[in-house]
Amino acid sequence: MKNRINTLLRGRAAPIAALLLAAAIIGGTAAAQFTLSHRARRVIAAYDAAEMLFSSNYMQEQRVQRSYYTDSESGSVTVDVTVCNYVQGNHFVFRDQAFSYSLEARVVRVENGSATDLTGSASAGVPTIEFDGDAAHPLAENGSYTAYTFSGMEMDPEAEGRGDITHIYHLTFPETFRDDPGMYIQLIATPSVSDLKPISVWMNFKKSAAAAVREWTLVAQDNTSNPIGDYSGFNYQLRGSGAGTVTLSWDSSLLEISEIFLESVGAPAPVTSNGFTSIEIAVDSFVKNSYDIQFYRRAGGTISAWSDIAVDAAVSCSFAEADTGG
Fold first, then answer.
1. Percent of the chain with pLDDT over 70
2. Cys staple from 59: which of 17, 193, 201, 214, with CB 3.0 to 4.6 Å?
3. Tens digits of per-residue pLDDT, 27-54?
4. pTM for the full predicted model
């Protein structure tokens, strides 16, 4: 399992910093030193809890009650639920040892924080669950609710040819669930190894006009009360709701983007026009709803004030929602 331990050293307490660095070297720990930026605090962090390396966009170790909000007036609703071998929000901290897990889905009624299993009870509509690319499995048959379990779901970084792995399940609620707020689908993902812990959720869906807002925005992350001359790099976060394409642009006379970020999102080659460079990023908030982005000073460029690199000045983004055909 990867052990990402990073020592962040700042210049004010030199004797203490030197002592910490010496201790890290003696202990055989690889320490990374970052100066002139708060970048390291947000981008590289130590994660001690092994269970965090088995995660989901909806499920958690302590079972949670979640609702997916839709602006649709009628019809069924499909929610994408992920199972991952990395810390949510940080694809670079992942479990590099192969393991498998099972995912159980069943219909329950939730009241006052307790769930009643409805397996065998008369069904109102037919919910389904589908592993990405496979056939959908009904959670009701012959007029009664039934459970379904995906067994032996493998997560093997070596076989996948990459470290971080995301499995996507499509959970479809029938329209009848909209009218019964107590109806939920219970999901429980159980790993095959003892150092990872099960995660679970009670999931339903509700109507909400607020769900019609689908947008991605860019936010500056650095503390602008500090002198900008102390920074060699700058942090932004792209975050939002909805699926589609984000176009990220920056003033290439002042900034250059992190190659690690470009690789992590699989962005195509940047395009430069009129002094600004742009890339297109495919986004889907049900899979991942935020991205940390790092830019660095371009050699020869002059950045003398925070306003020089403010959002909508030197960096910006636009969002085009995916065409769902509806």
1. 79
2. 201
3. 333 322 222 333 322 222 333 444 479 9
4. 0.56
Query: pLDDT tens digits, residue range 230-260?
Result: 899 999 988 887 788 999 999 999 999 998 8
- With contact defined as beta carbons under 8 Å apart, do 202 and 184 qualify? yes
Judged against a pLDDT cut of 80, whether residue 61 lies above it is answered with: yes
Which are the contacts of 141, defined by CB distance < 8 A and separation ≥ 6? none
Residue 300 to residue 179: CA distance in whole angstroms: 62
The amino acid sitting at 261 is F
State how far the Cα of 268 lies from the Cα of 278, in Å rounded to an integer. 10
Q: Which residues contact 236 (CB under 8 A, 6 or more apart)?
A: 218, 219, 220, 221, 292, 293, 294, 295, 311, 315
- pLDDT the model gives residue 123: 94
Residues 257-311 have pLDDT tens digits of: 998 888 888 888 899 988 899 999 998 877 777 888 999 999 999 999 999 999 8
